[in-house]
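User: Hand in any protein.

Assistant:
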Amino acid sequence: MEKVARATLSHKAYAYYSSASDDMTTHAENARSFSRFFFNARVMRPVGQCDPSTTILGYSSSIPVFICGAALAKLGHPLGEVNLTRAAAKEGIIQMVSSNASLSFEAIIGAAAPSQPLFFQLYKNRIDKLAEDRVNEVVRLGYRAIFLTVDAIVAGNREADIRSPWVLEDQESGTSPVWNENDPVEDVNLGGTAGALVDRDDKNMTWEKVSDIIVAWKVNNLASPA
């Protein structure tokens, strides 16, 4: 999959999708951790008809895997997240849609098959009212579950993503710049694509604040009529 991505994606898209913080140590360790999982082989069991299907939060899935929320699918294909929605319906698995999707949440769920469950990945906005409005919107649209992102309060120093504009500039000009200490310092974007996505997120998020949003949603949507 990564080989195909390198051959087909733009430099900017590949830099965003493949990069991780600093020396990518945690990224490498995360990948390596999967090598420490082993199947517990059992013998003398009927395996002529194997069924890997399961349920995730009560919703059926053909395999114990779902499409996790990831931003900006249009960087990989013009149809963006809708491609994933259609593929998930075809294969009988669940898709989680990112707060930073490249299409509207309405357009994505509008491409879903009848009764196809979609989950939502919430990045909480620093303005509580906007976060509450986002929750109300995805519930109204029919998303079946909301996953709160808690491990991306600030953007990581994703060097390949941050360097991408200069790499592209060098490729287009055919030359590599030579650093000169007397050149004026440019006002540059050191956040990259990933940094721009989390710029408006709540950097003071706590479980208490999230609980308040949930309570407000319940009051507005589940209260019995007077």
User: Anything to note?
Assistant: The chain has a mean pLDDT of 83. The CA atoms of residues 66 and 94 lie 5 Å apart. Residues 207-222 form the longest helix (16 residues). The longest strand covers residues 118-122.
